[in-house]
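To whoever is covering the structure queue this week,

Two jobs came back overnight. Logging them here so there's a record in the thread.

Job A:
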Amino acid sequence: MLKEARLNRIIEAVNERRFVSLHALMELTHSSESTIRADLVELAESGKIHRIRGGAQAINDESLSYEPSLEDKLGLHFAEKRLIAQKAVTLVRPNMAVYLDAGTSTHALAEELDAPGIKIFTNSMHVARKVIANGYKAYVVGGEFKFSTDAFIGPMAQDTLSRFHFDLGFFGTNGVSLDQGFTTPDVEEAAIKAKAMEQCKEAYVLADSSKFGVVTSVSFHPFDPSHLITDHVYQDEYRNLGILEAKP
């Protein structure tokens, strides 16, 4: 495939799917890994796509508000999320009140919990089921239920959160940006995350390395490297900032 045709096909695929992996683009264009990597650099520099680790993401306005379903996200970056969860769980002490945000990274953390006497609060039924199955008490923040992300949102959930105080909280994010902070596509979910973080003595954001440099519609907290846990920092601009890394 000629270069111009290949670049156009990459742009079309990314805009259609919003995210396309490196290997999917290799198969789509019948090109080598080195060729696709060079193409992604060129397209990112020209503002046509957003290059992230493992592939490319659309940068049009519509993509900023796109929220993949929980089922879509559960299998993505599984190994990285497991590493992050294993790092995060070392912060949990016996008898703590711990808040777990809705999301796949916090779901991975729920599977790793191993501290006696802890009480888990969450706005996710998925997380609550996992916690209960592992023998812990779970308290679910009620409200309007958003099926696609398995999250309770809305004024009722915010009001309930205002009555609790947590020793520790862990939160998912769709994007990590030096300028825009931690972001999510949904304004209601952003409000829940922000409120829950206010109720925590300490709060950590769990984000695999593909989230770095990504900005979605709504910021819920400023960038805070000392309370950000990731698998590995690859991008130069994020290095040496005090981000907690869980690399093996």
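Job B:
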Amino acid sequence: MQPIISVKRLTKTYASGFHALKGIDLDIHRGDIFALLGPNGAGKTTLINIICGIVNPSEGSVTADGHDVVRDYRAARSRIGLVPQELSTDAFETVWDTVSFSRGIFGKAPHPAHIEKVLRDLSLWDKRNSRIRELSGGMKRRVMIAKALSHEPSILFLDEPTAGVDVELRRDMWKMVRGLRDSGVTIILTTHYIEEAEEMADRIGVINKGEIILVEDKSVLMQKLGKKQLKLHLQHPLSRIPEELAGRELALAADGNELIYTFDAQSEQTGIADLLRQLGEHGIDFKDLQSSQSSLEDIFVNLVRAQP
């Protein structure tokens, strides 16, 4: 299947000489929720701005739904809805007027039924006649999403969509994003909330220092790179790990009351049985044990740290 967004050898060098993007290659599949992760200054916003036609690339090409974002800008941009991180809209306009106006910017004929559906889906219908300045921060965020959806795009960029909103509203927005994906819209999400990507995304991309260092299905990524830990709650605290066990991936925690063993869950030999035998030989008893899988946050931090 042809990707809905295709980025080839994309480079961006600013007048100052700063290399924001360095030969990016990236395909995003139609109908995916794609999470783009990276530390501050990694190049996320520059990449989004180029795909959306806001910034021109230095080299390379980008197509959005089959249209080159430079040569065929209007057609490409009409396929894209963008929700920027910053809240920027006319404070004195009503919700209905500002969303309807956004549709007109893209040359679309008035479609009140579509605007009504968008506002209802975002729980904004009761606020349709309210001025933007009268809304809470969370409601203003919803209006930004409504504006981005007003012209019926096939691609939606959400740049930090839940920044500054409470947990309840964040979960409401996750539900809304899933509904959009189910209706055929491709979602590209940037977020500082790693649990948001873990909860939402079908595929994960990690960008750092202007380079894509990984693109993978979330489930495959968790299997490939996720470590498991076995935490043993000891009967009696240890002051140190016995030398005979020093070669293992063991760590003491909780003032010596917990022994943590890290292992590869995909390996045929996890070493757990051998570890428990050795602990018994050294008279180290435990009263409870539990296992846990590495989170996406652990994986992300390790990937970024490992890049030279």
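Note for Job B: The mean pLDDT is 85.

Please reply-all if you pick these up so we don't duplicate work.
Q.
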